[in-house]
Amino acid sequence: MKKILIIGLGLIGGSIALGIKRTHPEHQIIGYDKKDVQNLAKTLGIIDESIPRLEQIQEIDVIILAAPIDVTLEILGQLSQLKLKKDVIITDTGSTKSRVMERAIKVFHDKNVKFIGGHPMAGSHKSGILASDVNLFENAYYVLTEENAELQEILSGLHAKFIILNPEEHDKITGQVSHFPHILASSLVQQSDDYSKEHPLVKNLAAGGFRDMTRIAEADSTMWTAVLLSNPEPILNRIKDFKTQLDEISEKISLKDEKAIKSFFDTGKKIRQGMEIHKGAIPNFYDLFISVPDEKGVILRVLALLQDISITNIKINEENREDIHGQLQISFKTEKDLVRAREIIEFATDFKVA
Ligand SMILES: NC(=O)C1=CN([C@@H]2O[C@H](COP(=O)(O)OP(=O)(O)OC[C@H]3O[C@@H](n4cnc5c(N)ncnc54)[C@H](O)[C@@H]3O)[C@@H](O)[C@H]2O)C=CC1
Ligand SMILES: O=C(O)C(=O)Cc1ccc(O)cc1
């Protein structure tokens, strides 16, 4: 039995706790967060115990930091002042790694601490303990700054794929494919909002493409502020590069260069189709969108048709125009389930699916 302390019991801390317990029910999970969050986590059975303050942790074998990056940086300093168990393993989950590693090396250099930077490459725009999910990291990459058999075994119940990366490379990559997209998503909704003042129908006509591009604009602002402030160089570099990309496509449009515009879209399509996200490496987003008529019992009918398939989430996307069908968004764990569900709905109904 190991004693594992999780600091920050939100989406990531809660999901990691559930994942550890799945394979290692013998480990004791101790949580530290605000009092009400700790109480909720305990009531939900996500943690076994909590501690009122960050002290008397000399019995703890593994400490997992799952708080926003700025808080993580501060807590590393606090931990270094405390009496810790000899050879304690400390890891974090922050979305950026260079600043965290610099701080950890600085504060623990003369201590018997094994610090391993970590970043599970899955999550959601949702936050907080209530959003935790034992399957959140299923098949997702989990970046570690170095191999550590003990830590990887403790986290084996997350069913993630560990990958070793140095902090600088990690921050450049995630700057491109995670941090920068969050900036784009938020910019896009704000640009649309400004434009809707002149053109009020903008918000009504936003369709699936807009929704897919902007889901992450709903992510937590505290967390993302800390992410951007801890990875400024790579992100500013990506913004600069993107401005050039926009200038290039602007030029093609101005020149009415049909061939170049078509090639622009063909290239993007081909690249995306070759990416792992397209092959189903990223969990949680096997979504089927079904246009259903506004009729009594229609949702139950769809669910009855899909009763043999494991559904992870159901959302009813309300439409505000009476003449249009509502959209049922059903999420599946695997691409196979999604394909089967689509076949069943298409065979048994005349509802449009996408
Ligand atoms: N949200 C996501 O999709 C992902 C987030 N991450 C990283 O994981 C970390 C946690 O993110 P989430 O779980 O999404 O955030 P969250 O907002 O769901 O949870 C953070 C928790 O930390 C707690 N907290 C804040 N200050 C604290 C303090 N001084 N002491 C103890 N607890 C404190 C908050 O009360 C909250 O419960 C962040 O560093 C983030 O960059 C990593 C992968 C995915
Ligand atoms: O919501 C999404 O799709 C995400 O992109 C989740 C996410 C957020 C932050 C990370 O550091 C890693 C993954």
From TrEMBL:
Entry keyword annotation includes Ligase: no
Coiled-coil annotated residue ranges, if any: none
Keyword field contains Oxidoreductase: yes
Pathway(s) per entry: Amino-acid biosynthesis; L-tyrosine biosynthesis; (4-hydroxyphenyl)pyruvate from prephenate (NAD(+) route): step 1/1
GO molecular function: NAD+ binding; prephenate dehydrogenase (NAD+) activity; prephenate dehydrogenase (NADP+) activity
Cited PROSITE patterns: PDH_ADH (PS51176)
Highest rank taxon of the organism: Bacteria
Keyword set, alphabetical order: Amino-acid biosynthesis, Aromatic amino acid biosynthesis, NAD, Oxidoreductase, Tyrosine biosynthesis
Domain Prephenate/arogenate dehydrogenase: 2-283
Any one GO biological process: tyrosine biosynthetic process
EC number: 1.3.1.12
Catalytic activity: prephenate + NAD(+) = 3-(4-hydroxyphenyl)pyruvate + CO2 + NADH
A Pfam family it matches: PDH_C
InterPro entries listed in its UniProt record: 6-PGluconate_DH-like_C_sf, NAD(P)-bd_dom_sf, PDH_C, PDH_N, Preph/Arog_dehydrog, Prephen_DH
Family under the similarity heading: Belongs to the prephenate/arogenate dehydrogenase family.
Listed name of the protein: Prephenate dehydrogenase
Organism in which the protein naturally occurs: Lactococcus protaetiae
